[in-house]
Amino acid sequence: MQWRNSARRYGLVSILLHWGVALAVFGLFGLGLWMVGLDYYSSWYRRAPELHKGIGILLLLAMLLRLLWRLLSPPPAALASYSALTRRGAALVHGLLYLGLFVLMLSGYLISTADGRAIEVFGWFSVPATLSGVDGQEDLAGTVHRWLAWALVGLAALHALAALKHHFIDRDATLSRMLGRERT
Question: What number of helices (H) and strands (E) belong to the chain?
């Protein structure tokens, strides 16, 4: 398999970034749902949020790498069988996923740094608090974070259903290309 994208399919780097981000997003969503229900006496009360923050910062780095990689190795062109509506819908959903993920990570950062403390990332490095002390920052960012997380998971589910529709109903190469296979 080639590293870079070609005119007909995605390369290994794009595939790993795509599926890695998807796994991280759904994992963070599940972790987030679980950790908000922990009580103060749980052994995970402090560890779960630290894990969530650390993975979130690594996800931000992966998303920045993904954007850079898109510039260096553009994705394959849309299939000729796609209608204009399908092309516009796919572009809109992809754009909303990217924008939503970056806003979600920004809101998570604003929650975590509202008290002025940096975010420690597994003891490897820390991300300083650059904006803190705004009245209601943690609550407002928390509300955005919660609702946007649900919206993104719903949008990602729609994205997955569209890929399955292309694969099983339309019988085109949409899903095969993201799996690194060429399908005629």
Answer: 5, 2
pTM above 0.70? yes
Q: Among the CATH numbers 1.20.120, 3.20.20, 1.20.950, 1.20.1250, which is that of 12-178?
A: 1.20.950
Contact 78, 93 (CB under 8 A): no
Structure tokens belonging to residue 153 = 């998971």
Q: Where are the domains of the chain?
A: 12-178
CB neighbour list of residue 51: distance below 8 Å, 6 or more residues apart: 31
Distance CA 11, CA 4 (A): 4
DSSP state of 117: P
| pLDDT string in tens for the chain (184-residue length) | 799 999 888 999 999 999 999 999 999 999 999 999 999 999 999 999 999 999 999 999 999 999 999 999 999 999 999 999 999 999 999 999 999 999 999 999 999 999 999 999 999 999 999 988 899 999 999 999 999 999 999 999 999 999 999 999 999 999 999 888 776 5
Cα separation, 173 vs 167, in Å, equals 7
Round to whole Å and give the CA distance between 126 and 123. Answer: 8
